[in-house]
Write a structure and sequence with these properties.
The protein is an alpha+beta fold. It has two domains: about 180 residues, EvaA sugar 2,3-dehydratase subunit (Nucleoside Triphosphate Pyrophosphohydrolase, Alpha-Beta Complex), CATH 3.90.79.40; about 40 residues, no CATH class. It contains six helices and eleven strands. Strands 5, 6, 7, 8, 9, 10 and 11 form a seven-stranded mixed β-sheet that branches. The protein is globular and about 60 Å long. The protein starts with a helix and ends in a 5-residue tail after the last helix. About 20% of the residues are buried.
Amino acid sequence: MSNEIKSMLPTLPDHSIDLIVSSTTEENPFMGTADFFKWLNYLNDQVTFETEFVPLNEIKGWGFDAHGNIRHNSGRFFSIEGIKIKASFNEKESTWDQPIINQPEVGFLGILCQKKDGVLYFLMQGKIEPGNVNKIQISPTLQATKSNFSQVHGGKVPPFLEYFKGNIEGRTIIVDQLQSEQGARFLRKRNRNMIIKMDESEEITVPENFCWLTLKQIKILLQYPNLVNMDTRTVLSCIQL
């Protein structure tokens, strides 16, 4: 850590000091950077994953509604609709039609962090998603739409949902912001981006596909293509020192 940063620390809030220390610390007794790649390879070896394109009428619960939009028969998740765009760029008007994803629900993109032996660690998830080019990517602790955590799909409640949903008073909130998703693909879509600091004395059970990393380690992993997913980048970009 530079002398300039050290001289600033006494004047900064505690959580800012924790973030700066974490962002300058690569040493991690829980999972070193080299061990991280062994852990990632292990997880990928445990996964059998295949994506196949199929006709819409073969996807259970999905189809066209009376207006020609693609949606789930529960009315939840999202729909794919057609829109007409009228825009002006440099006084030149343009018009075009396009499909867009309409998902009015506000989901959670949340990261838990905890200070251990003077260093702030972030609980990251090794998550596989159908569109990933390399199976598992580093995701936030919680990455879930409202339909997902409401179990509309009949699946399990995502781990650590209770830290972000409902009453969060008494916890240290580092980030809590509504941020819009990609406007060219989603119609007025927003997610709640959160970073919550746990008490140092709090103990949790960490599933096999989760790991504790420092901010410095995550910054190093950002240099690798297709490794740190977009949602992790979105949440961390909200940090203010």
